[in-house]
Amino acid sequence: MTSEVEIDAYRLMHWMNARKMTPKMVAKRSDVDFTVISDLAVGQANKRISADETSRIADVLNIGIGDLVFENQAAPDVIYMSKEEVLATCREIQRGGIHFYNYYSLPAPQGFIAPVLIDILCPPDQIPTQNNGHLEPAITINLGPGHIQGLWSEKPTEDTYHPFYANKEEDSDWILGDSYLEPPYCPHTYARHSNEPTQILSYTIKSNLESFVNVSNAWSDKSYENMLSTINEDAFGGFALRTLMERHGYDAETLGKRVGVGDNSIPSFLGGDSTALSTDGLKKIALLLGCDYRLLMPNVKNVDRIGRSWCTVQDSRASIRRFKSYTVASMSVSPQHPDLMGLFFKVDKPETKGDLDLMDHSVTHYMVTGGNPIFRWEMPDGAVAEQSLADRDTLWVNAYVRCGFFGNGSLIKMGNGEGTTYLDHYEMSNTFDVPGALRRGRHDTSTWTPINE
């Protein structure tokens, strides 16, 4: 029996447009019936064709077969997972010869990332066995009730082996403990600080560097080292400008003359002096080189010696505020990880009154930490659905779903960039007629040239 492949019409159209090839060209060069290609091109349902035909089309477009295969990426608006369902995902982690952690998964659709709930089991009299770190950044919260002894280096030092505190005060019913963000490849491991049991909630998200790492893994070692030798992390704007000047054929003298800045301004900027060029000067350079001037500006950092960003219980408490119909308190945030966030959330309002007053631009996770709030959300047909919640019940909520909580309770809210990332916002800010481009791009199967030509 001949194996078949389901072709994704949108992917096929994308690659035909990118390669500037018409359906007739693809049909002729791949020896696949023109009606198959044209039916896809006018937006008819995804078709199953033979693996051999798929391979021939992929060869013509100079892509892999996987670039054409249909994957059902439809995601629900909301996923509810009870405490019992979360506990059923338990898996034991052995490390250093002992039962080290229990891991539990929170809900997410296939292909999406979800936080994990972790029992800390390493005893307090033992230095915990270290892990190797990972590319993906993460936010982690001590849920209590006990403190944690954390280690963020291979060997304990004063600033890398210290407590990670739980909240022991009256507001521990909703502000549970310290939180922090960890950078890529930061080793991290945890033990109990005393015999008191404790848990963490950790959200390890996809790194925005992942696609670059995947692409650059195909480079030669020499090319990769050439790239690393050009980077100046402490003066990234200068590094970025130097790469653009190389790309567009300018040196410091010719660029300075074209934009009318002082003789030493550009060499100083390239050397690491971020104040050598004014914002107006950077904008002039951006117009000349066709770049986003914000890439050349110095970034803001709030990290410690090893790249962590901390928010203590006291910091969270100091941030308490009203937000719409809720009381909230901040967790750790960092300009280095704009998509990664957490929030302590308190609900105290009538069960039957109030608007659906929440709607996030990216995926959101909620875990109930106390009480019995009610969650309501607007479904695609406009009807309002409802889910009663209890302690340690969890929710996954898709981007731009209008929703709200009612009654009484407390939750932890966590989010990443699955939906709209900060990089997407940058791209939107640079796109002409953003609404028009996005409307046209949704499920677009238009070809770049008339279908029969």
Secondary structure: elements and pairs:
Layout: E1 4-6, H1 9-19, H2 23-30, H3 34-41, E2 48-50, H4 51-61, E3 78-81, H5 83-87, E4 91-95, E5 98-105, E6 116-120, E7 138-145, E8 148-151, E9 161-164, E10 179-182, E11 189-192, E12 198-204, H6 210-216, H7 221-230, H8 236-248, H9 252-259, H10 265-270, H11 279-289, E13 309-311, H12 313-318, E14 321-323, E15 326-330, E16 341-349, E17 364-371, E18 374-378, E19 384-388, E20 394-397, E21 403-415, H13 422-429, H14 434-441
Antiparallel strand pairs: 1-2, 3-20, 4-5, 5-6, 6-12, 7-10, 7-12, 8-9, 8-11, 10-13, 14-15, 15-16, 16-21, 17-20, 17-21, 18-19, 18-21
Helix pairs in contact: 2-3, 2-4
Profile the largest sheet: 9 strands, antiparallel
Low-confidence region ranges: none
Principal-axes geometry comes out as globular
Q: For the residues shown, what is the average pLDDT? A: 92
CATH architecture call of the largest domain? Sandwich
Q: Count of helical segments?
A: 14
The CATH C-level class name of the largest domain: Mainly Beta
